[in-house]
Amino acid sequence: RAFAKAYLSASGLPDKSEDVTALIVDAEIYRLGLCIRCPLYGLLSRGFMRVSSELCQESKAAYRKFVAQVRQSVELQAEVATLGVYGCIEKSAPELTVLQKRVQARLCTPDSGFSADFLSGHTPYWLGVPG
Fold first, then answer.
1. Which of 64, 102, 105, 108 gives 118 a disulfide partner, CB atoms 3.0 to 4.6 angstroms apart?
2. Are 127 and 107 in contact (CB under 8 A)?
3. DSSP state of 41
């Protein structure tokens, strides 16, 4: 929060608590699709072929719904700012968590090249590349 406040101040932008929270929420939501090490990458049509297009569409819709809920809820915004977007999903979006686990189960199979941490579900699929 201190960094976000200093960034806003140095940029000449409003830096009240709600402005800091808004910046953090935007940055956390951006993390969902930033690069190959993000959950939405695996759901792209060019992504991993082990995930059915139906599951991809269902998952993308759930992410869109979650982001819309965060944008409308001060409580969820506070959670995202405190727990991060992934922590907030785990705590407050059980249907999205289930979909994430379904994608993980399809991607991280014994023949996928993912290590044991990924196969066990301990590490999310988006934090690694099969190897």
1. 108
2. no
3. G
CA angle in degrees (0–180, nearest 5) for 100-25-4: 135
Dump pLDDT digits (tens) for 56-95: 889 999 999 999 999 999 999 999 999 999 999 999 999 9
113: left (phi over 0), alpha (psi -120 to 50) or beta: left
Structure tokens, 1:
């929060």
What is the reported pLDDT for 121? 84
**Where are the alpha helices (H) located in the chain, listed in sequence order?**
2-10, 17-30, 53-72, 74-92, 94-107, 116-119
The model's pTM: 0.84
40: closest CA among 56, 20, 53? Answer: 56
